[in-house]
Amino acid sequence: MKLREIAHSRTGDKGNTSSISVIAYEAADYALLLRHVTAERVKAHFGELVAGEVVRYEIPSLGALNFVLRQALGGGVTRSLALDTHGKGLSSTLLDLEIPDESPSRTTPQQDGDH
Amino acid sequence: MLLCSRFPEAVVKQVRIGAGAGYSGDRIEPAIELAEKGGLDYLVFECLAERTIALAQQAKLKDPKAGYDPLLAERFRAVLRPCRQSGTRIVTNMGAANPVAGAERIRAIAGELGLTGLKIAAVTGDDVLSSVASSDYRIDETGASAADLGDSLISANAYIGAQAITEALADGADIVITGRAADPSLFVGPLVHAFGWARDDWHRLGQATLIGHLLECAGQVTGGYFADPGYKSVPDLARLGFPIAEVGEDGSVVVTKVAGSGGQVTPATCKEQILYEIHDPARYLTPDVVADFSCVTVEEIGFDRVRVQGASGHPRTGTLKVSLGTIEGFAGEGQISYAGPGARARGALALEIVRERLALTGVRTSELRFDLIGANALHGERLSNHGGGHEPYEVRVRVAGRTDSLIEALRIGNEVETLYTNGPAGGGGVTKSAREVVGILSTLIPRERVATAIHYVES
Question: How far separated are the first and last CA of chain A, in Å rounded?
Answer without folding.
Answer: 16
